[in-house]
Design a protein that fits this description.
68 residues; alpha+beta; four-stranded antiparallel β-sheet; 3 helices; 4 strands
């Protein structure tokens, strides 16, 4: 997984809506609110438990890695 530096912007399209997250010194910002982790933001967007790095495309699923 890449190291994210502050002010990095992550974009994710979910069900036709584009979501933007900004990496900050002590977490991430989504819709003007601070969160401790990408997973909290992913849960807010989807309504279910997700790995934040996986949701935002920062790491691959285990099956994708195994398949090459």
């Amino acid at each position: 997984m890449p190291i994210l530096v502050p002010v990095t912007v992550l974009l994710r399209n979910w069900h036709g809506t584009e979501h933007q997250v900004i990496v900050r010194e002590l977490g991430v910002e989504f819709q003007g609110r601070q969160y401790k982790s990408l997973s909290q933001v992913a849960r807010r967007i989807t309504g279910s438990k997700w790995s934040g790095p996986l949701f935002f495309g920062l790491k691959q699923r285990a099956q994708q890695v195994a398949d090459g």
